[in-house]
Amino acid sequence: MQSTKQEEYHLAQVNTATLRGSLDDPEMADFVAQIRDVNAVADADPGFIWRLRSEGAEDATSIRAFEDERILITLTVWKSVEALSSYVYRSAHASVMRDRRRWFEKADQPILALWWIPVGHTPTIAEAKERLEHLRSHGSTPYAFSFSKPFSSPEDISSRFVTAGVDYN
After folding, report:
1. Which of 54, 72, 77, 144 could be stapled to 135 by a disulfide with Cβ–Cβ 3.0 to 4.6 Å?
2. 9-163: what fold?
3. Hey, what long-range contacts does 121-125 have (CB within 8 A, 24 or more apart)?
Protein backbone atom coordinates (compact mmCIF):
# COMPACT_ATOMS: atom_id res chain seq x y z
CA MET A 1 0.00 0.00 0.00
CA GLN A 2 1.15 3.48 -0.77
CA SER A 3 1.62 5.73 2.23
CA THR A 4 0.24 9.26 2.06
CA LYS A 5 1.62 12.26 3.89
CA GLN A 6 0.17 12.55 7.35
CA GLU A 7 -1.61 15.76 8.31
CA GLU A 8 0.11 17.37 11.27
CA TYR A 9 -1.77 18.45 14.38
CA HIS A 10 -1.36 20.85 17.26
CA LEU A 11 -3.18 20.90 20.57
CA ALA A 12 -5.82 23.55 21.25
CA GLN A 13 -6.64 24.39 24.85
CA VAL A 14 -9.39 26.43 26.44
CA ASN A 15 -9.81 27.14 30.10
CA THR A 16 -12.09 29.43 32.01
CA ALA A 17 -11.94 30.97 35.45
CA THR A 18 -14.59 32.89 37.36
CA LEU A 19 -13.08 35.92 39.08
CA ARG A 20 -13.81 36.55 42.76
CA GLY A 21 -13.61 40.30 42.08
CA SER A 22 -13.03 42.68 39.21
CA LEU A 23 -9.53 42.91 37.80
CA ASP A 24 -9.12 46.39 39.29
CA ASP A 25 -10.14 45.18 42.77
CA PRO A 26 -7.19 45.31 45.23
CA GLU A 27 -7.71 41.64 46.15
CA MET A 28 -6.93 40.75 42.52
CA ALA A 29 -3.72 42.82 42.35
CA ASP A 30 -1.35 39.87 42.88
CA PHE A 31 -3.01 37.94 40.05
CA VAL A 32 -3.03 40.90 37.65
CA ALA A 33 0.64 41.62 38.44
CA GLN A 34 1.61 38.12 37.24
CA ILE A 35 -0.28 38.04 33.94
CA ARG A 36 2.43 39.64 31.78
CA ASP A 37 5.26 37.50 33.20
CA VAL A 38 3.30 34.24 32.99
CA ASN A 39 2.33 35.01 29.39
CA ALA A 40 5.97 35.82 28.58
CA VAL A 41 6.99 32.39 29.88
CA ALA A 42 4.43 30.81 27.54
CA ASP A 43 5.55 32.97 24.61
CA ALA A 44 9.16 31.85 25.11
CA ASP A 45 8.29 28.15 25.47
CA PRO A 46 9.38 26.12 22.42
CA GLY A 47 6.11 24.15 22.60
CA PHE A 48 3.93 27.26 22.46
CA ILE A 49 2.24 28.25 19.17
CA TRP A 50 -0.48 30.89 19.77
CA ARG A 51 -2.82 32.48 22.30
CA LEU A 52 -5.95 34.57 22.14
CA ARG A 53 -5.38 38.25 22.89
CA SER A 54 -7.68 41.21 23.17
CA GLU A 55 -7.25 43.57 20.23
CA GLY A 56 -4.24 45.79 20.89
CA ALA A 57 -3.40 43.99 24.15
CA GLU A 58 -0.94 41.37 25.37
CA ASP A 59 -3.61 39.27 27.10
CA ALA A 60 -7.28 38.31 26.77
CA THR A 61 -8.56 39.69 30.07
CA SER A 62 -10.92 42.15 28.39
CA ILE A 63 -12.63 39.49 26.28
CA ARG A 64 -16.03 38.53 27.65
CA ALA A 65 -16.99 35.25 26.00
CA PHE A 66 -19.71 34.34 28.48
CA GLU A 67 -22.86 35.96 29.83
CA ASP A 68 -21.25 36.08 33.29
CA GLU A 69 -18.70 38.88 32.83
CA ARG A 70 -16.57 37.54 35.68
CA ILE A 71 -15.52 34.57 33.55
CA LEU A 72 -12.09 34.89 31.93
CA ILE A 73 -11.20 32.74 28.94
CA THR A 74 -7.76 31.49 27.94
CA LEU A 75 -7.43 29.96 24.49
CA THR A 76 -4.04 28.67 23.35
CA VAL A 77 -2.37 26.34 20.86
CA TRP A 78 0.58 24.09 21.73
CA LYS A 79 2.73 21.53 19.93
CA SER A 80 1.68 18.70 22.25
CA VAL A 81 -0.05 17.70 25.47
CA GLU A 82 3.39 17.30 27.03
CA ALA A 83 4.44 20.85 26.10
CA LEU A 84 1.27 22.34 27.57
CA SER A 85 1.48 20.18 30.69
CA SER A 86 5.08 21.24 31.28
CA TYR A 87 4.10 24.91 31.03
CA VAL A 88 1.05 24.55 33.28
CA TYR A 89 2.66 22.49 36.04
CA ARG A 90 6.42 23.16 35.84
CA SER A 91 6.83 26.84 35.00
CA ALA A 92 5.94 30.18 36.60
CA HIS A 93 2.35 29.28 35.77
CA ALA A 94 2.44 26.65 38.52
CA SER A 95 2.52 29.33 41.24
CA VAL A 96 -0.64 30.88 39.79
CA MET A 97 -2.24 27.42 39.89
CA ARG A 98 -1.29 27.01 43.56
CA ASP A 99 -2.86 30.37 44.48
CA ARG A 100 -5.89 30.19 42.18
CA ARG A 101 -8.41 29.88 45.04
CA ARG A 102 -7.43 33.40 46.15
CA TRP A 103 -8.63 34.87 42.85
CA PHE A 104 -11.08 32.41 41.30
CA GLU A 105 -14.24 30.67 42.43
CA LYS A 106 -14.15 26.89 42.77
CA ALA A 107 -15.72 25.32 39.69
CA ASP A 108 -18.37 22.62 39.89
CA GLN A 109 -17.75 21.42 36.32
CA PRO A 110 -14.76 21.08 33.97
CA ILE A 111 -13.14 24.42 33.12
CA LEU A 112 -10.49 23.10 30.72
CA ALA A 113 -10.83 21.27 27.40
CA LEU A 114 -8.19 20.06 24.97
CA TRP A 115 -8.60 19.00 21.33
CA TRP A 116 -6.46 18.40 18.26
CA ILE A 117 -6.47 20.89 15.39
CA PRO A 118 -4.71 20.81 12.01
CA VAL A 119 -1.49 22.81 11.95
CA GLY A 120 -2.30 26.36 10.85
CA HIS A 121 -5.86 26.36 12.19
CA THR A 122 -6.64 29.12 14.69
CA PRO A 123 -9.40 28.07 17.09
CA THR A 124 -12.26 30.49 17.68
CA ILE A 125 -14.01 31.34 20.91
CA ALA A 126 -17.18 29.68 19.58
CA GLU A 127 -15.22 26.51 18.81
CA ALA A 128 -13.62 26.56 22.26
CA LYS A 129 -16.96 27.00 24.02
CA GLU A 130 -18.42 24.12 21.99
CA ARG A 131 -15.52 21.82 22.91
CA LEU A 132 -15.77 22.74 26.58
CA GLU A 133 -19.53 22.12 26.59
CA HIS A 134 -18.98 18.77 24.85
CA LEU A 135 -16.49 17.73 27.53
CA ARG A 136 -18.92 18.77 30.25
CA SER A 137 -21.75 16.77 28.66
CA HIS A 138 -19.87 13.66 27.49
CA GLY A 139 -16.61 13.44 29.44
CA SER A 140 -13.28 12.93 27.69
CA THR A 141 -13.62 11.89 24.04
CA PRO A 142 -11.37 12.45 21.03
CA TYR A 143 -13.52 15.55 20.29
CA ALA A 144 -12.71 17.21 23.63
CA PHE A 145 -10.63 15.79 26.45
CA SER A 146 -8.83 16.60 29.68
CA PHE A 147 -5.29 16.23 31.00
CA SER A 148 -6.46 13.30 33.12
CA LYS A 149 -7.90 11.41 30.11
CA PRO A 150 -5.96 12.58 27.03
CA PHE A 151 -6.34 11.23 23.50
CA SER A 152 -3.58 10.82 20.92
CA SER A 153 -3.54 13.15 17.95
CA PRO A 154 -5.06 11.79 14.72
CA GLU A 155 -1.53 12.01 13.28
CA ASP A 156 -0.18 9.69 16.01
CA ILE A 157 -2.99 7.20 15.48
CA SER A 158 -2.50 7.15 11.68
CA SER A 159 1.26 6.73 11.98
CA ARG A 160 0.78 3.66 14.18
CA PHE A 161 -1.24 1.98 11.41
CA VAL A 162 1.31 2.95 8.74
CA THR A 163 4.14 1.63 10.93
CA ALA A 164 2.25 -1.64 11.25
CA GLY A 165 2.06 -1.88 7.44
CA VAL A 166 -1.51 -0.66 7.14
CA ASP A 167 -2.33 2.76 5.69
CA TYR A 168 -5.87 3.90 6.39
CA ASN A 169 -5.42 7.35 4.83
Report:
1. 144
2. Alpha-Beta Plaits (3.30.70)
3. 121/10, 122/50, 122/77, 123/12, 123/14, 123/75, 123/77, 125/52, 125/63, 125/65, 125/73, 125/75
